[in-house]
Structure formats: C-alpha cells, structure tokens
Amino acid sequence: MERKLNVVKIEKNYHHGDLRQALIQSALALLADKGVEAFSLRETARRAGVSPAAPKHHFKDTRGLLTALATIAFTRLADALEESDAAAAQDLSSRLGAQGAAYAAFALAEPALFALMWRTAMFDLTDINLLAEKARAFDSIDRLVRGAAAPRVPHADPAMAPTIACWSLVHGFVCLMLDGGLGEDRDAQAQATDTLLPAMIGLLNIRN
Amino acid sequence: MERKLNVVKIEKNYHHGDLRQALIQSALALLADKGVEAFSLRETARRAGVSPAAPKHHFKDTRGLLTALATIAFTRLADALEESDAAAAQDLSSRLGAQGAAYAAFALAEPALFALMWRTAMFDLTDINLLAEKARAFDSIDRLVRGAAAPRVPHADPAMAPTIACWSLVHGFVCLMLDGGLGEDRDAQAQATDTLLPAMIGLLNIRN
DNA sequence: TCTCAAATCTAGACAGTGTAAAGTTAAAGC
DNA sequence: GCTTTAACTTTACACTGTCTAGATTTGAGA
What we know:
The structure is a homodimer. Chain A folds into two domains: 8-58, Arc Repressor Mutant, subunit A (Orthogonal Bundle); 61-202, Orthogonal Bundle (Tetracycline Repressor, domain 2), CATH 1.10.357. Helices cover 62% and strands 0% of the residues of chain A. By secondary structure, chain A is mainly α. The termini of chain A are far apart. Chain A has helices spanning 19-34, 41-48, 62-87, 92-109, 111-117, 128-146, 161-178, 186-202. Chain A has eight helices and no strands. Chains A and B meet through helix 7 and helix 8 of A and helix 7 and helix 8 of B. The structure holds a DNA duplex.
C-alpha cells in the first residue's frame, strides 16, 4: 500500500527529519487555537504525528518548548518594533504612535503568543537567546523614547521614566484589552486601538 | 476517644460546617503559595481536609471557585483604591500618585491573586458579582482622573483617554514588573515602584 | 420523638496530563 | 558490513478535573 518510490519522503518515517521545527510549528498552531491555558505537550506531539515522549529529545520538557516559543515571540515583537520605527515619519510623536500601534497590532494578531511572553513561570526566563531578543525589543523602544545617543542605564534608574512610562502605557492598554479590562466587544476594542491609544500616547510628555 | 462535649465543634465532622468559606481560604493560601499556574482543586480540597469531589457542592467546578477568588480580588483592589483616595491630599497629582501606589502595593502584596484577576480564560468573566466589583475599581480610578462630575461614557469613547491612560500606565508597569519585564531584582523593583512610578505618572498630562 | 427527604460529603472510576525508563529502529561513522 | 549513537515508541506512574453512585448527617414535618 505504501509507496516507497517517492524521492521526497512524505510517508511517515521512524525518524522524522526535522521534528524540532515540526514541534514548534505544531505548538504555535496549538497555542493560537486553544490559548496558553489549554496548551499541552501531548497534543503538540499528536499534531506533529509523533509519540508523547518524542519531544523530550529536542526539548527537555514542556518548559523547554515554551521557552523556545517565547523566544520566537520576542523575536517577532522586536522585528515588528524595529520595522515600524524604520518606516515611520521623522517627528517623535508620530514615531511613538507608530511603535505603539505596532506593539498593539502584534499582540492582537497573536494574543496567545503575546500572553505566553509574560507567563514567566512557564518558561526559562534566564535563557540567553530569550534574553537577547527581549533586550532587542526593549532597546527599540528605549532608542526611540530617550534617543539613540542616550546612555544606557539600569531599568530602575530615574532617567528611564520616559521609556518605562511609554512601554507601560502601551503594554498595560494591550493587556487590559486582551484580558477583559475594557469590555469584550471586539469592535470597540479595535476602535479603541485606533483612536484611544494614539490619544493616550499623546498625553505623555516625551521629548528627547 | 473523640470528645463530643465541646460546644464548639472542633473535631472533624462529616458535615464541615462552612466548607465553602474553608475552601476559599485554602484556595487563597494555595494561590499565594504556589501561584496561579500551579493551582489545583484537589490540592485545595486536601488542604481543607475534604475529599476531591467535595468542592463540587459549593462550586460547580474549578472555574467556579476561581470566579469566587477573582471576585474577592477585585473587591480588595476596589477597597484599596477607594481608601487610598479617601486618605489622600487634595491636589490631583498627589491623589493620582497615591492611587497608583495603592494599585501597585496591592499587586505586589498578592501577586498571584493579582495575576488571577487577568486570567480571564480561567473564570467566568460574566459573573454579576465579579463585574460589580470590577466596575467599582474602575469607577474609583475614573472618578479621580476625570472628576466626580464627568458623565459616564463607554470605555472606548475618546473622552476616556485620560482614565484609560492612567490605568494602563500603572497596570502595565505593575504587570511588567511582576512578569519579568523590568528584571528580577526585587530591591530594584521596590525602588522602581517608589521612585519611577510617581515620575511616570507625573509625565501624564491629566487635568480635570 | 420518629421519619424521611434533602443537603453534604466520600469512594471509585475515567480520561486527561507531564515525564521517566526501557526498548526499538534507522542513520552515521569507521 | 558492523557498531555506535541518535531518534523515536512503548509502557508506566503520579498527578489532574470531574463524573457517578453511595454513605452520612441534618433539619423539617408528622
């Protein structure tokens, strides 16, 4: 029954070929489908067509897989922020608006992935790749708010107030929206993102 | 062996007396101990000294219990916000600072309970008591930011920008801090709450 | 006081979960 | 071609939530 003639190995092999990548894809799909709370390693393996214990060879455990997913999430966020800033106009306020919109757009496009990023009990927060991507995202914000020439200081330093304020404002707004703080109406949420968010950013006294 | 003479029934009865309340207490303790992710209905029952299925009579399921806990959380937050405003000075900026500090203090004092409030997939977001307490908390913020005389409008209304901005800023800051966005150093976090948060609120253009 | 129904809890079971240990298969290295 | 090693399966165990049926206690009515 099984045709073994195909050069491209489509039929199920014992060795998968690139199971690691396949698992990540399954996991991303599962996450998007069911959300963070309903995520399951077994279901991920099932979707990839392998046994429940197969992932262990590529990720130590669920935590390991989720660490990889969170890293991907931070990569995508950092990319989105950098791109939005590169494409934006020259004046600061519109650049701030563009980056805020990019942040919100990313979160609304992949809410489960965005939620995972902040479920720090679920993955390894000290993972070096994850930290790098997270720092890249943060730097993108900081570079815009405090200026490319501003000296790097610890997060808790008073000089960081504008950056953290900007980040907090947008992050908080997005979280409240996704987590039911601003009602459940999807249309109202979209409208809030389009009109309310820029207005809110405009209330912030940022000048560099 | 068992002394039945005590008027106050201390020994273990088949009927617990007030299992509902006991379960809530166990659940709150468990939540504080292990966090939201590690919460378990069976463990809650175990701590209350009853069988795994006992909670069903008082809460339909885990979701039901968590809805009760989230309602308690919103009640406490609303209380804290109202009290802080009642005790604060008269000028707007210090009142804003006080309420922001109260919000942060609540979240830092009970991080797991605070986290639960926004895990909207875990409980019944349409519960009428929960909605009432949540609205009370929101009204406390809105009353301060937009003034007691300001007309009530939908959340997405442009007039809401100051309120949502204020809430988003503080909420986002607290979330970032609890979820590792601002590093893991507890001392730095405490310092950030004391010095950075007021500075950030000061950056907001609020006048009513 | 006795009885009986309702409320409350226990016991047992089932389908899920994560993951550890041991066995099987295929590929790679010599 | 043979052996080693990596990749995967199988099996098993301890958890989880929740369903069912049954046991116990309480309280209300006769």
